[in-house]
Amino acid sequence: VQLQASGGGLVQAGGSLRVSCAASGRSLSSYFMDWFRQAPGLAREFIASINWDSGNTFYTDSVKDRFTISRDNAKNTVDLQMTSLKPDDTAVYYCAAGVSPTAPSAWGQGTQVTVSS
Q1: Contact yes or no for 45/36 (Cβ under 8 A)
Q2: Is residue 78 within 8 Å of 20, Cβ to Cβ?
Q3: Spatial CB neighbours of 91, under 8 Å, sequence gap ≥ 6
Q4: What are phi and psi of 41, to 5 degrees?
Q5: What is the pLDDT of residues 43-60, one digit of tens each?
Q6: Are 49 and 56 in contact (CB under 8 A)?
Q7: Which percentage of the chain shows pLDDT scores above 90?
Q8: What is the β-pairing status of strands 91-98 and 106-107?
Q9: What is the DSSP string of 3-48?
Q10: pLDDT in tens, 20-41
Protein backbone atom coordinates (compact mmCIF):
# COMPACT_ATOMS: atom_id res chain seq x y z
CA VAL A 1 0.00 0.00 0.00
CA GLN A 2 1.22 3.49 -0.84
CA LEU A 3 0.32 6.40 1.41
CA GLN A 4 0.40 10.12 0.65
CA ALA A 5 -0.11 12.62 3.46
CA SER A 6 -1.16 16.22 2.96
CA GLY A 7 -2.69 19.18 4.73
CA GLY A 8 -0.09 20.28 7.25
CA GLY A 9 0.70 23.91 7.88
CA LEU A 10 1.06 26.71 10.40
CA VAL A 11 -1.72 27.46 12.88
CA GLN A 12 -2.02 29.49 16.06
CA ALA A 13 -2.50 27.84 19.42
CA GLY A 14 -6.14 27.04 19.98
CA GLY A 15 -6.78 26.65 16.28
CA SER A 16 -7.72 23.68 14.15
CA LEU A 17 -6.15 21.83 11.25
CA ARG A 18 -6.96 18.72 9.21
CA VAL A 19 -4.35 16.40 7.74
CA SER A 20 -5.29 13.77 5.19
CA CYS A 21 -3.81 10.52 3.93
CA ALA A 22 -4.62 9.02 0.55
CA ALA A 23 -4.02 5.29 0.18
CA SER A 24 -3.50 3.34 -3.02
CA GLY A 25 -2.18 0.05 -4.25
CA ARG A 26 -4.40 -2.43 -2.45
CA SER A 27 -7.61 -2.87 -0.56
CA LEU A 28 -7.52 -1.57 3.00
CA SER A 29 -9.88 -4.24 4.26
CA SER A 30 -8.48 -5.80 7.46
CA TYR A 31 -6.05 -2.90 7.87
CA PHE A 32 -5.57 -0.45 10.70
CA MET A 33 -4.79 3.08 9.61
CA ASP A 34 -2.66 5.04 12.03
CA TRP A 35 -1.33 8.52 12.58
CA PHE A 36 2.02 9.04 14.26
CA ARG A 37 4.00 12.20 14.87
CA GLN A 38 7.60 13.09 15.54
CA ALA A 39 8.67 16.31 17.19
CA PRO A 40 12.25 17.59 16.87
CA GLY A 41 14.62 15.61 19.05
CA LEU A 42 11.95 13.16 20.15
CA ALA A 43 10.96 9.64 19.17
CA ARG A 44 8.08 9.02 16.81
CA GLU A 45 4.90 8.53 18.80
CA PHE A 46 1.57 6.90 18.04
CA ILE A 47 -1.45 9.21 18.29
CA ALA A 48 -4.50 7.62 16.65
CA SER A 49 -5.74 4.50 14.89
CA ILE A 50 -8.86 3.43 13.02
CA ASN A 51 -9.94 -0.02 11.93
CA TRP A 52 -10.79 0.25 8.26
CA ASP A 53 -13.60 -2.32 8.39
CA SER A 54 -15.33 -1.46 11.67
CA GLY A 55 -14.43 2.20 12.02
CA ASN A 56 -13.43 1.62 15.64
CA THR A 57 -10.92 4.20 16.84
CA PHE A 58 -8.50 4.73 19.67
CA TYR A 59 -6.15 7.52 20.67
CA THR A 60 -3.22 8.26 22.85
CA ASP A 61 -4.25 10.16 25.97
CA SER A 62 -2.54 13.42 24.99
CA VAL A 63 -4.84 13.94 21.99
CA LYS A 64 -8.03 12.26 23.18
CA ASP A 65 -11.00 14.68 23.01
CA ARG A 66 -9.03 17.05 20.74
CA PHE A 67 -8.22 14.94 17.69
CA THR A 68 -10.57 12.83 15.58
CA ILE A 69 -9.51 10.17 13.11
CA SER A 70 -11.93 9.19 10.36
CA ARG A 71 -11.95 7.30 7.09
CA ASP A 72 -13.72 7.61 3.77
CA ASN A 73 -14.12 4.15 2.30
CA ALA A 74 -15.12 5.45 -1.12
CA LYS A 75 -12.11 7.76 -1.46
CA ASN A 76 -9.62 5.49 0.35
CA THR A 77 -8.59 8.34 2.61
CA VAL A 78 -7.98 8.76 6.31
CA ASP A 79 -8.22 12.16 7.94
CA LEU A 80 -7.04 13.50 11.27
CA GLN A 81 -9.02 16.50 12.44
CA MET A 82 -7.08 18.39 15.10
CA THR A 83 -8.66 20.99 17.36
CA SER A 84 -7.53 23.04 20.36
CA LEU A 85 -4.00 22.76 19.05
CA LYS A 86 -1.09 23.46 21.37
CA PRO A 87 2.55 24.35 20.64
CA ASP A 88 3.43 20.86 21.92
CA ASP A 89 1.50 19.41 18.97
CA THR A 90 4.17 20.79 16.63
CA ALA A 91 5.64 17.82 14.78
CA VAL A 92 5.88 16.00 11.49
CA TYR A 93 2.73 13.91 11.16
CA TYR A 94 2.88 10.53 9.43
CA CYS A 95 0.10 8.26 8.26
CA ALA A 96 0.70 4.54 8.36
CA ALA A 97 -1.05 1.25 7.66
CA GLY A 98 -0.79 -2.33 8.83
CA VAL A 99 -2.69 -5.41 9.93
CA SER A 100 -1.96 -4.66 13.58
CA PRO A 101 -2.81 -1.36 15.26
CA THR A 102 0.17 0.81 16.21
CA ALA A 103 2.54 -1.57 14.38
CA PRO A 104 2.31 -0.45 10.76
CA SER A 105 4.11 -2.02 7.84
CA ALA A 106 3.68 0.91 5.45
CA TRP A 107 4.39 4.59 5.98
CA GLY A 108 3.61 7.74 4.11
CA GLN A 109 5.89 10.73 3.92
CA GLY A 110 5.35 13.20 6.72
CA THR A 111 3.53 16.48 6.70
CA GLN A 112 4.68 19.33 8.94
CA VAL A 113 2.29 20.80 11.49
CA THR A 114 3.50 23.88 13.35
CA VAL A 115 1.50 25.46 16.17
CA SER A 116 2.59 28.94 17.18
CA SER A 117 2.04 30.32 20.68
Answers
A1: yes
A2: yes
A3: 37, 38, 39, 42, 113
A4: 80, 0
A5: 999 999 999 999 999 999
A6: no
A7: 96
A8: antiparallel
A9: EEEE--EEEETT--EEEEEEEESS--TT-EEEEEEE-TTS--EEEE
A10: 999 999 889 999 999 999 999 9
> In DSSP terms, which residues pair with 24 in a beta bridge?
2
**Residue 88 CB coordination number (10 Å):** 11
Q: Give yes or no for a contact between 35 and 69, defined as CB atoms under 8 angstroms apart.
A: yes
Residues 6 or more apart from 93 whose CB is under 8 A from it? 5, 8, 19, 35, 36, 37, 80, 110, 111, 112, 113
**What's the pLDDT at 48?**
97
Torsions phi, psi for 87 (to 5 deg): -55, -30
CA dist., res. 91 & res. 113, Å (int): 6
Closest to 33 (Cα-Cα) out of 44, 18, 47, 45 = 47
